[in-house]
Design a protein that fits this description.
alpha+beta, 2 domains, five-stranded antiparallel sheet, about 15% strand, elongated
Length: about 375
């Protein structure tokens, strides 16, 4: 039986690494255009290679599960087409026994994917952002809007935490602003748009908000909130220290430990931390997807019953598109805490797992 396990694993890993390299390179090409522009702007070639080295771990978080899926489809499609599955089952081997070494391999690959997505990729992503950021030691000499980046909790303007979906020059779109208090839940300000202006003489930033509302805790019962709608609202923000080099971390930049601590910290302060929860769920779910994809790829590969690799690629891409569509949806609504987007990330895992179990059972009974 060791010979059978070696045969299956050898074929699987040959396909796995081939697919991994192809898909990672294909995704890397999309980033090469931006990197080429850095060369045109005068950046050194060593800097561009540094960017490429740090981009690859982020791409691997997507291509590793996909490589698991397609490699499993290739393997069992080939075994089925050559009637090897029939021969093994005729010898008294169950489909689970035949697939066991593949499940072990998928578990180990999933564990590696977890390490990459939870620790290596965030650190590399932060290195990329730091390398592109300007030195803001002399904060008064730059446009203060540079301190704010989209889809990121900005804590530079104590006691406020600012989050926006998008920004263009001095204009911020779809803002969430939380005034954090030690002894009470945070006051939340939501606005469709905000314009920032730096007041050099006063040493502050004036933020003009339009079309929004304020949720303030009731002093008598902090669990209840008052809501006040506004057309225009004025807010003044104190600048960070001029000696402070503030480069905020996005959810993508935080190692798993820091991300978990931030979720707990914001929970305690009453800050809407749903974007952080979505990122946390995404990392765990995509790591589990290596096993889920392998589970469903085995019966699908047998059912396809073709040796051509095009059918494996087609099935793999269709499943991957459906899977990642849910992640994209969850991140698109990651501020809507009442929709629980952190659980939407798990829906394709649950659906594929149940489907895989049913298909696997039926194939095994045949």
């Amino acid at each position: 039986m060791k010979i059978l396990s070696r045969y299956i694993l050898k074929d699987f890993f040959t396909n796995f690494f081939s697919v991994l390299i192809i898909f990672t390179f294909a995704l890397l090409i999309g980033n090469l255009i931006e990197l080429t522009q850095l060369l045109i702007k005068g950046f050194k070639l060593s800097f561009v290679f540094k960017m490429i080295f740090n981009i690859i771990p982020y791409l691997l978080t997507y291509t590793i599960p996909l490589a698991c899926l397609v490699a499993s489809l290739f393997l069992f499609g080939k075994l089925s087409a050559n009637h090897e599955i029939t021969a093994m089952k005729s010898s008294g081997l169950s489909l689970f026994y035949i697939s066991k070494p593949l499940f072990i391999a998928a578990f180990l690959i999933g564990a590696f994917c977890f390490v990459v997505s939870s620790y290596i990729s965030p650190s590399c992503h932060y290195v990329i952002r730091k390398s592109k950021k300007i030195d803001i030691g002399e904060i008064g000499n730059i446009n203060p809007v540079q301190l704010i980046e989209k889809s990121m909790f900005i804590e530079a303007f104590h006691p406020y935490i600012i989050y926006c979906d998008d920004k263009t020059e001095n204009t911020l779109k779809n803002l969430m602003i939380f005034e954090v208090k030690n002894d009470a839940p945070a006051t939340a300000i939501f606005a469709k748009e905000g314009t920032m202006q730096y007041d050099d003489k006063a040493g502050m930033i004036r933020l003009e908000l339009t079309e929004g509302n304020i949720d303030a805790p009731n002093p008598e019962d902090p669990k209840k909130f008052f809501r006040l709608s506004f057309e225009n609202y004025h807010l003044e923000l104190d600048l960070p220290s001029r000696d402070e080099k503030y480069i905020p971390r996005s959810a993508n930049d935080m190692p798993l430990g820091k991300l978990t601590r931030k979720i707990k910290e914001y929970d305690k302060s009453g800050v809407n931390n749903t974007p952080l929860k979505v990122e946390f769920s995404t990392r765990i779910a995509t790591s589990f997807s290596c096993i889920i994809f392998t589970l469903i790829a085995i019966p699908l590969g047998i059912k396809a019953h073709r040796s051509e690799k095009t059918i494996g690629i087609a099935l793999g891409l269709c499943l991957a598109l459906c899977y990642y569509a849910f992640i994209i949806l969850a991140k698109a609504i990651d501020k809507e805490s009442h929709l629980y987007p952190e659980y939407i990330v798990w829906l394709p895992n649950i659906a594929l797992f149940l489907t895989g179990i049913v298909l696997f059972y039926r194939i095994n009974r045949q």
